[in-house]
Design brief:
Layout lengths: L1 H5 L1 H23 L1 H20 L10 H21 L2 H9 L9 H22 L3 H15 L8 H5 L9 H18 L4
Protein backbone atom coordinates (compact mmCIF):
# COMPACT_ATOMS: atom_id res chain seq x y z
CA UNK A 1 0.00 0.00 0.00
CA UNK A 2 2.87 2.38 0.82
CA UNK A 3 4.15 2.04 -2.77
CA UNK A 4 0.84 3.32 -4.13
CA UNK A 5 0.94 6.37 -1.85
CA UNK A 6 4.57 7.07 -2.74
CA UNK A 7 4.05 6.78 -6.49
CA UNK A 8 5.21 10.18 -7.81
CA UNK A 9 2.31 10.66 -10.23
CA UNK A 10 -0.27 9.68 -7.62
CA UNK A 11 1.31 11.99 -5.02
CA UNK A 12 1.42 14.92 -7.46
CA UNK A 13 -2.27 14.44 -8.28
CA UNK A 14 -3.24 14.26 -4.61
CA UNK A 15 -1.11 17.33 -3.81
CA UNK A 16 -2.69 19.25 -6.69
CA UNK A 17 -6.20 18.30 -5.54
CA UNK A 18 -5.36 19.25 -1.95
CA UNK A 19 -3.98 22.62 -3.10
CA UNK A 20 -7.03 23.30 -5.29
CA UNK A 21 -9.35 22.30 -2.45
CA UNK A 22 -7.65 24.63 0.02
CA UNK A 23 -7.77 27.50 -2.44
CA UNK A 24 -11.48 26.81 -3.01
CA UNK A 25 -12.34 26.96 0.69
CA UNK A 26 -10.02 29.98 0.97
CA UNK A 27 -12.07 31.70 -1.71
CA UNK A 28 -15.31 30.78 0.08
CA UNK A 29 -13.88 32.20 3.32
CA UNK A 30 -12.04 35.32 2.19
CA UNK A 31 -12.92 36.13 -1.40
CA UNK A 32 -10.72 36.60 -4.46
CA UNK A 33 -7.92 38.97 -3.35
CA UNK A 34 -7.12 37.27 -0.07
CA UNK A 35 -7.14 33.90 -1.83
CA UNK A 36 -4.63 35.20 -4.38
CA UNK A 37 -2.33 36.18 -1.50
CA UNK A 38 -2.97 32.89 0.30
CA UNK A 39 -2.35 30.97 -2.93
CA UNK A 40 1.22 32.24 -3.19
CA UNK A 41 2.33 29.97 -0.35
CA UNK A 42 0.50 26.86 -1.45
CA UNK A 43 1.23 27.24 -5.15
CA UNK A 44 4.88 28.18 -4.68
CA UNK A 45 5.27 25.37 -2.14
CA UNK A 46 3.69 22.97 -4.63
CA UNK A 47 5.97 24.15 -7.45
CA UNK A 48 9.13 24.06 -5.31
CA UNK A 49 8.19 20.56 -4.14
CA UNK A 50 7.68 19.45 -7.76
CA UNK A 51 11.12 20.77 -8.72
CA UNK A 52 12.90 19.52 -5.62
CA UNK A 53 14.16 15.98 -5.43
CA UNK A 54 15.56 16.43 -1.93
CA UNK A 55 14.06 14.16 0.69
CA UNK A 56 16.13 14.63 3.83
CA UNK A 57 15.18 12.96 7.08
CA UNK A 58 12.88 15.13 9.20
CA UNK A 59 15.70 15.50 11.74
CA UNK A 60 17.56 17.61 9.15
CA UNK A 61 15.02 20.44 9.43
CA UNK A 62 13.13 19.53 12.62
CA UNK A 63 14.41 22.51 14.63
CA UNK A 64 13.55 24.97 11.86
CA UNK A 65 10.12 23.39 11.36
CA UNK A 66 9.06 23.62 14.99
CA UNK A 67 10.60 27.06 15.52
CA UNK A 68 8.72 28.34 12.46
CA UNK A 69 5.50 26.71 13.66
CA UNK A 70 5.92 28.23 17.14
CA UNK A 71 6.57 31.67 15.63
CA UNK A 72 3.50 31.29 13.40
CA UNK A 73 1.12 30.34 16.22
CA UNK A 74 2.75 32.02 19.21
CA UNK A 75 3.83 35.30 17.63
CA UNK A 76 2.28 35.89 14.24
CA UNK A 77 -1.30 34.67 14.73
CA UNK A 78 -1.44 36.37 18.14
CA UNK A 79 -0.21 39.66 16.68
CA UNK A 80 -2.74 39.41 13.85
CA UNK A 81 -5.54 38.67 16.31
CA UNK A 82 -4.77 41.39 18.84
CA UNK A 83 -3.93 44.03 16.23
CA UNK A 84 -7.09 43.26 14.20
CA UNK A 85 -5.44 42.04 11.00
CA UNK A 86 -8.67 40.72 9.44
CA UNK A 87 -10.43 44.01 10.04
CA UNK A 88 -7.59 45.96 8.40
CA UNK A 89 -7.39 43.52 5.50
CA UNK A 90 -11.11 43.87 4.87
CA UNK A 91 -10.62 47.63 4.37
CA UNK A 92 -8.26 46.81 1.49
CA UNK A 93 -10.16 43.92 -0.11
CA UNK A 94 -13.68 45.16 0.52
CA UNK A 95 -14.64 41.69 1.77
CA UNK A 96 -16.19 41.35 5.21
CA UNK A 97 -14.26 39.70 8.02
CA UNK A 98 -15.15 36.00 7.79
CA UNK A 99 -17.31 34.52 10.51
CA UNK A 100 -15.09 32.35 12.70
CA UNK A 101 -17.86 29.72 12.76
CA UNK A 102 -18.25 29.51 8.98
CA UNK A 103 -17.79 25.95 7.70
CA UNK A 104 -15.39 27.09 4.94
CA UNK A 105 -13.10 28.86 7.42
CA UNK A 106 -13.14 25.92 9.83
CA UNK A 107 -12.26 23.54 6.97
CA UNK A 108 -9.50 25.86 5.79
CA UNK A 109 -7.86 26.12 9.21
CA UNK A 110 -8.22 22.44 10.04
CA UNK A 111 -6.98 21.31 6.62
CA UNK A 112 -3.98 23.63 6.38
CA UNK A 113 -2.76 23.70 9.98
CA UNK A 114 -3.77 20.09 10.54
CA UNK A 115 -1.87 19.00 7.45
CA UNK A 116 1.18 20.98 8.53
CA UNK A 117 1.06 19.23 11.91
CA UNK A 118 0.87 15.86 10.11
CA UNK A 119 3.84 16.59 7.82
CA UNK A 120 6.54 15.44 10.28
CA UNK A 121 4.77 12.13 10.88
CA UNK A 122 4.28 11.53 7.15
CA UNK A 123 7.93 12.32 6.44
CA UNK A 124 9.14 10.07 9.25
CA UNK A 125 7.02 7.25 7.81
CA UNK A 126 8.48 7.80 4.34
CA UNK A 127 5.52 9.41 2.56
CA UNK A 128 6.41 11.90 -0.18
CA UNK A 129 3.20 13.87 0.52
CA UNK A 130 4.78 14.97 3.80
CA UNK A 131 7.50 16.83 1.86
CA UNK A 132 4.84 18.61 -0.18
CA UNK A 133 3.19 19.74 3.08
CA UNK A 134 6.53 20.86 4.52
CA UNK A 135 7.25 22.92 1.39
CA UNK A 136 3.83 24.55 1.49
CA UNK A 137 4.30 25.37 5.17
CA UNK A 138 7.70 26.99 4.69
CA UNK A 139 6.57 28.80 1.52
CA UNK A 140 3.44 30.11 3.24
CA UNK A 141 5.50 31.41 6.16
CA UNK A 142 8.45 32.65 4.12
CA UNK A 143 6.74 33.99 1.00
CA UNK A 144 3.04 34.66 1.63
CA UNK A 145 3.61 36.40 4.95
CA UNK A 146 5.81 39.00 3.23
CA UNK A 147 2.54 40.47 1.95
CA UNK A 148 2.31 42.25 5.31
CA UNK A 149 4.96 44.64 3.98
CA UNK A 150 2.94 45.26 0.79
CA UNK A 151 -0.40 45.88 2.50
CA UNK A 152 0.52 49.42 3.66
CA UNK A 153 1.31 50.34 0.04
CA UNK A 154 -2.05 49.04 -1.14
CA UNK A 155 -3.90 50.73 1.71
CA UNK A 156 -2.53 54.12 0.71
CA UNK A 157 -1.36 57.00 2.80
CA UNK A 158 2.02 57.12 4.49
CA UNK A 159 3.80 53.77 4.76
CA UNK A 160 3.45 52.37 8.25
CA UNK A 161 2.70 49.40 10.42
CA UNK A 162 0.15 46.84 9.24
CA UNK A 163 -1.09 44.16 11.68
CA UNK A 164 1.15 41.10 11.54
CA UNK A 165 4.14 42.96 10.14
CA UNK A 166 6.33 42.89 13.26
CA UNK A 167 6.27 39.12 13.75
CA UNK A 168 7.04 38.47 10.06
CA UNK A 169 10.52 39.82 10.79
CA UNK A 170 11.04 36.66 12.89
CA UNK A 171 8.75 34.28 11.01
CA UNK A 172 9.99 34.68 7.43
CA UNK A 173 13.72 34.17 8.15
CA UNK A 174 12.91 31.04 10.16
CA UNK A 175 10.95 29.72 7.17
CA UNK A 176 13.80 30.57 4.77
CA UNK A 177 16.19 28.69 7.04
CA UNK A 178 13.75 25.77 6.98
CA UNK A 179 13.56 25.88 3.17
CA UNK A 180 17.33 25.83 2.99
CA UNK A 181 17.55 22.81 5.29
CA UNK A 182 14.67 21.04 3.51
CA UNK A 183 16.40 21.50 0.16
CA UNK A 184 19.46 19.62 1.43
CA UNK A 185 19.73 15.83 1.32
CA UNK A 186 22.01 15.79 4.34
Amino acid sequence: MKEIFNNRVYTVIVAFIFTAGLLSVGYASFGFWTTIIFASGFLSGFIIWLLSRAAPPFATFKVQYWLTFAAFIGLHRMEEYFMKFQEELSTITGNPVPDIKSPALIILVLASVGAWLCAPLLIKRGYAFGYYLAWTFFAAMGITELAHFVFPLVKGGPYGYFPGMASVIVLAPLAWWGMYRLSRNK
